[in-house]
Amino acid sequence: MLQGFKDFVMRGNVIELAVAVVIGTAFTGLVNSVVEGLVNPLVAAVGGGQDLSGTWTVALGSGADAPEISFGLVVGAVLNFLVIAAVVYFLIVLPMNTLAKRRKAGVEPEPPAPAEDVLVLQEIRDLLAARREV
């Protein structure tokens, strides 16, 4: 039972996922600072500085404390997501993909050498073919 758990934990996917979570957590601060320092001021300048959370609401009852559905809050969250995704893509993903393509350019991996048993079988095949010709 413990061996199965050890095999599961030591599997490459689990280790890679753990590393991705740690890196993603550390990367959150960088993305937040780019969004708060660069993107949000630009969006506020273009959009007139309007916060959408209080707009486009529908009251579900009458009275001061009636619950409200805020479509503006959802639209604002979707816009924030799209802006953050665009910033991450154009400032991080696209340059990294370009760099990876440049590194791979002109470099073709060497084919792997055949295994020892394949070499022995090829030798036997060649010997049998030579016998047939004689």
From TrEMBL:
Q: Does the keyword Ligase apply?
A: no
Q: Which residues cross the membrane?
A: 12-31, 69-94
Q: Does the keyword Cell membrane apply?
A: yes
Q: Which GO terms describe its cellular component?
A: plasma membrane
Give this protein's Gene Ontology molecular function annotations.
mechanosensitive monoatomic ion channel activity
Family statement drawn from the similarity comment of this UniProt entry: Belongs to the MscL family.
Q: Could you give the subunit structure recorded for this chain?
A: Homopentamer.
- Name the PANTHER family for this protein: LARGE-CONDUCTANCE MECHANOSENSITIVE CHANNEL (PTHR30266:SF2), MECHANOSENSITIVE CHANNEL MSCL (PTHR30266)
Q: What is this protein called?
A: Large-conductance mechanosensitive channel
Native species of this protein?
A: Actinotalea ferrariae CF5-4
